[in-house]
Amino acid sequence: MKYLVIILLALFASCNKGVKDEVSIHEETTILQEGSKMTSETLSNQNIVKVVDYNALAPLLAKQNDTTYVVNFWATWCKPCIKELPAFEKLGKTYISDKVKVILVSLDFPDKLTSQVLPFIEKNQIESDVILLDDADANSWIPAIDETWSGAIPATIIYNKNKRTFYERSFTYQELEKEVKSIL
Hints:
Elements: H1 2-17, E1 33-34, E2 37-38, E3 41-42, E4 48-52, H2 54-57, E5 68-74, H3 79-94, E6 100-106, H4 113-123, E7 129-133, H5 138-145, E8 155-159, E9 164-167, H6 173-183
Parallel strand pairs: 4-7, 5-6, 6-7
Antiparallel strand pairs: 1-2, 3-4, 5-8, 8-9
């Protein structure tokens, strides 16, 4: 009952005040809608899960600065993805001073955000940035990410302003670290 009241209050508040960019989640999960897209979610551990379409994701895949980006495409239902996530978390923590940033792009369905994605992130203490890609036009965005990508996951892009590599495979920590070192 408390959950329902929170959702209804949040929906009424968003209708009256416009779109909110972020919602704090403590004991309950609240979702605000902007048209058909969900807005950002803040977990109790301060992670933010942004629900975006490909047009909003694209700039994150082409930044030209001094940071090396490791962008992993995964889903909570993908066993190889789940198996390799600790390697990405460890990499992000180990190489933070070397300006390496890990971004985890979930390909779960948006309606699974509160029932699967957020609990998974909290349970596994994911600290990397998490984005949920909500774009049904996969035939457009998959080849835009990489021409060789079949759409299978896990898939990873490692890039910086000088080099970009794409991998349609799983990684161990040692393999991932080797690939990142080759770009640093």
